């Protein structure tokens, strides 16, 4: 009788462990959401969220903010451009190993990018001009190659390369 109870206990632990393991990773019907810190010309931050539509495919969105300054020193004077980029993006992702601890993916999407640029010279003159800076606001594409590593069934670390952050990292929470 004790052997039967031990076998049943071991079987129960195996089934429970297998069900817990299947809850780790990207899942259909679940939402992942988390903050991002990244680099794209300058340090930036944002957030991303995703909903699992199928076993391998997710849809979601990203918000990104990047600000950077280009300063030019001349012989007698200097001038600088301060740029700001805000992106609001919608994207689809393909996950190569859904339901696993290590979750590599590719992401592509479309979004609206708002650029602002301010020029300032050594005499205190300033003006705002995107035309002079060579940047335009409007629709644009986004793409990433990245991976998540699930530390638990509901928390993952994330790293990616692409656009609008050349390199981004964050923590995702799964609901």
Please characterize this protein's 3D structure.
By secondary structure, the protein is mainly beta. The protein has a single domain (2-174), classed as Porin. The protein has two helices and nine strands. The protein has helices at 2-22, 130-133, and strands spanning 31-40, 42-52, 57-73, 78-95, 102-121, 126-128, 138-150, 155-163, 167-174. An eight-stranded antiparallel β-barrel has the order 1-2-3-4-5-7-8-9. β1 (31-40) and β2 form a beta hairpin. The longest helix is centred in the first third of the chain and has 21 residues, at 2-22.
List the main descriptive attributes of the protein structure presented here.
mainly beta; single chain; disordered N terminus; elongated; 175 residues; 9 strands; 2 helices; eight-stranded antiparallel beta barrel; Porin
Secondary structure layout:
Blueprint: H1 2-22, E1 31-40, E2 42-52, E3 57-73, E4 78-95, E5 102-121, E6 126-128, H2 130-133, E7 138-150, E8 155-163, E9 167-174
Antiparallel strand pairs: 1-2, 1-9, 2-3, 3-4, 4-5, 5-6, 5-7, 7-8, 8-9
Quick structural summary:
Helix content is 14%, strand content 62%. The chain is mainly beta and 175 residues long.
Task: Specify the structural class.
Answer: mainly beta
Strand order of the largest sheet: 1-2-3-4-5-7-8-9
In DSSP terms, counting alpha (H) and pi (I) runs of 4 or more, how many helices?
Answer: 2
CATH topology group:
Porin
Strand element count: 9
Which percent bin holds the helix content? 10-25%
Poorly predicted runs of 5 or more residues: 1-22
